[in-house]
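Project standup — Tuesday

K.O.: blocked on the structure for the chain from last sprint. Re-posting the sequence here as requested.
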Amino acid sequence: MKLKHLRNKSIDFKRWDNCIAQSKNHLTYAFSWYLDVVSPDWEALVSKDYEYVMPLPLKSRYGFPYLVQPVLTQQLGIFSKHDINEKIVEEFMKEIPYFSYELNLNENNFYANADIYPNFILDLNKPYKEIYEAYSKNSRRNIEKARRLNLKIQQNISEEEFLSFYFSVHKHYLSPQQPVLQKLIEKGILENSLTLYGILSANDNLIAELCLLKTNNRLTYLLPVSNAEGKNSSAMFFLIDYLIQENAEINAILDFEGSKIEGIARLYRGFGAKYHPYYILKRFRPSFLIRK
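H.V.: unblocked you, prediction finished:
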């Protein structure tokens, strides 16, 4: 397969987005509008007629160019409407024009030499009752707790309200920078690919929220956050159950974006989500690039 390295200004974005939309392994993260926000200088490897494509999320530090997985982008890698085998993955890896990279390949890009990371996906193409019956006892107990507390769900909360709450809550993980998140939300709403949900207490106080990506047949649990009351009230259990009820019996999946933290992984498995690994490749990651 002959591959071509394209700088950003040389990419045919219409053909690119057509490839992503038609691909068997399509992910919202790989559309040009999404990449433009999370990795403004992204480049690409493409085959003839854009039948196979791979985004290259380019950054530079101290004049040293390298590739790194962008924030709010769990998986990228190679996309196509055709099958992608390990030989094709290897061909793309050999053509990466940069010496240093850390890239998350998608679940359809199996590569034996890659590190394996967990993701959890729930098939929604079943009656709600059938999906509910597969919930763990802990999930059911937390949902009932939230119902007794009379929590309420508000769809399409404002961007301002979402951002204000999100950055007011203390988190034990690295948050995306506010300008990036704000731009992603604005663009996602314009693309009709993003919905902001709020969970309110019985007193109408915002206690949790979720930024949900929604394209084609995939709902992505992109950015959940709860304050102390939201956690104590099991607000996210309540919202996930609501999303499942609203989208049951359609040809779609709920992508939880996985986690290596056992407590979070247990939450996702508790709704019947199945393990779907993805693959991470790293080469020459010096300390001055990864800030260690």
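K.O.: great, moving the ticket to review. DSSP finds eleven helices and 16 strands in the chain. Residues 19 and 50 are 7 Å apart (CA to CA).
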